[in-house]
Recover the amino acids of this structure.
């Protein structure tokens, strides 16, 4: 009962809706891309099962980051859905997946990763405690990310250029961290 209530409160606080609360309460972890996510599996083991993250998984493989994201961590990953990659200019993903662009692809992907295990509640608390309404993260890439709450309670993650991505599914717990699904690609400057 307590976990169901807590999941519902977090879902309402983040504005992610009843579907999030229901899936989170039933499995202790939300469904992502039509697949159950298991807290005892690592980031890569879960991501490969999400139909919404096939582009991200292909990019992680092309960048040679599979072993890193399977390591102990903990990591917080802001995971863009396929539609986020599709929204980039035509040919961008195909160009980034070419071997000669591995360094740029790695920089972009690691701009979505923060060291540590940042739950949605941790992020919301940090934003609320900040003096400017933003909580500032350092991504593994060295780039700056910021989190902000909208007036309706949604969490947005911003890259250095000011591009915003909405957290659509929060707190997908992993054995080596947590994934927050986002609707945009965060780009380094």
């Amino acid at each position: 009962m307590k976990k169901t209530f807590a999941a519902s409160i977090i879902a309402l606080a983040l504005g992610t809706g009843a579907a999030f609360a229901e899936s989170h309460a039933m499995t202790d972890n939300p469904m992502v891309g039509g697949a159950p996510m298991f807290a005892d599996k690592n980031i890569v083991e879960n991501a490969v099962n999400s139909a919404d993250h096939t582009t991200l998984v292909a990019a992680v493989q092309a960048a040679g980051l599979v072993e890193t994201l399977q390591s102990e961590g903990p990591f917080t990953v802001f995971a863009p859905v396929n539609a986020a990659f599709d929204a980039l200019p035509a040919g961008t993903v195909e160009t980034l997946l070419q071997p000669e662009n591995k360094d740029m692809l790695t920089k972009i992907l690691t701009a979505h990763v923060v060291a540590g295990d940042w739950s949605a509640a941790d992020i919301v608390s940090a934003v609320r405690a900040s003096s400017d309404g933003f909580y500032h993260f350092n991504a593994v890439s060295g780039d700056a990310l910021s989190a902000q709450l909208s007036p309706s309670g949604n969490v947005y993650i911003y890259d250095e250029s000011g591009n915003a991505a909405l957290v659509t599914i929060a707190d997908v717990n992993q054995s080596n961290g947590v994934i927050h699904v986002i609707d945009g690609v965060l780009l380094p400057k």
